[in-house]
Amino acid sequence: MDGLQRIWFKLWDPLWNRLAGGKVAKGLAGLILLYLLVATGFGVYWSFEPSRVDMVELAKQQAEAGGQQPVVGYYTSEALIHVTETLLDKPGGYLSNDRLPPGIWLDNIPNWEFGVLVQARDMARALRKTFSRSQSQSTEDPDLAKAEPLLHFDSNSWILPDSEGEYRKAIKALRAYQASLSETGEESAQFYARADNLRDWLGDVSTRLGSLSQRLSASVGQRRLNTDLAGSPGAAQSTQTAHESEIQTPWMEIDDVFYEARGTAWALIHLLEAVEVDFAPTLEKKNARVSVDQIIRELEATQATIWSPMILNGTEFGFLANHSLVMASYISRANAAIIDLRELLSQG
């Protein structure tokens, strides 16, 4: 055995000494550098946000391809499917649960994805709870009962099961519901385009936009009075809170909130375009179609090209721009228009 060891060292020691002299280290360094450059290139490409599509035309194409009729509710279900599929099929795929470069380096697109996902979840819940049911005692649609909890699955799950797999199951269930809408049998799925149903969903949208507006506005810090119980005689809360408080979004989270708002607005544009078609008779009767168009226009302004290499956080009237305050302005105006639309829908 000792003889074999001596032969081994005589053969490999000189080779190892030459490699260790720098070639191995240089080779490894070169491979690492090449990998980082390629990963950076992919990271830049994956950071581009998906473009907007014509939701009405897309729904018509889908119906024609599937041999289906675009009945009431078809456009809204197609919009929900489209925004969910975009999360999974855009360049780079779904990045929120990535554990390797370049996905793990990126944070803007994952926050954009979360904004889209929240709107998809809210619409799935609205479909299951109100749009597909004629009254509170009616039976819920079985496909929507599968899809909604699947979309609420953990958005950061990497494996066993992964988020993408659960969301694709939700899309499959939504496709089944959409196909059932076009059937004429007694057991076919339903979509009830009533003013009260639309008003309920818009209430959820308004709540989300209100929260985003507050978080965006807090980029520069604000002193806010406690208005939690304002306008409610005899109201009470579980614990006492301060009369005035300092609210400020942490500096490292400013761009996160900004891109979450961008994703939220992107998803809402597609959903509102579809809702405008499915609820056309109701909106026409209320003379509210122009209100929906105005909301969409306000949200479209949030999708303008960002020319700055980073999200700036200047003071209100300082030398530098404050992108969060600009975004908050558009979101607030869209939210105000939604509040007015809900009031209009509640009138007889």
β-sheet strand percentage: under 5%
Determine the mean pLDDT.
Answer: 86
SS-based class? mainly alpha
Based on Cα principal axes, name the global outline.
globular
Poorly predicted spans: none
Strand order of the largest sheet: 1-2
Distance separating the two termini: 98 Å
The count of β-strands is: 2
Features:
62% helix; two-stranded antiparallel sheet; mainly alpha; 2 strands; 2% strand; 348 residues
Can you tell me about this structure?
The protein is globular. The longest helix has 45 residues. By secondary structure, the protein is mainly alpha-helical. It has a two-stranded antiparallel sheet with strand order 1-2.
Topology:
Layout (H helix, E strand, L loop, with lengths): L1 H45 L8 H11 L8 H16 L18 H24 L10 H10 L11 H19 L13 H23 L4 E4 L18 E4 L6 H25 L1 H6 L3 H12 L22 H24 L2
Antiparallel strand pairs: 1-2
Helix pairs in contact: 2-3, 3-4, 3-6, 3-8, 4-5, 4-7, 4-8, 5-6, 7-8, 7-11, 8-10, 8-11, 10-11
Short description:
This protein is mostly helical and 348 residues long. 62% of the residues lie in helices and 2% in strands. It has a two-stranded antiparallel ribbon.
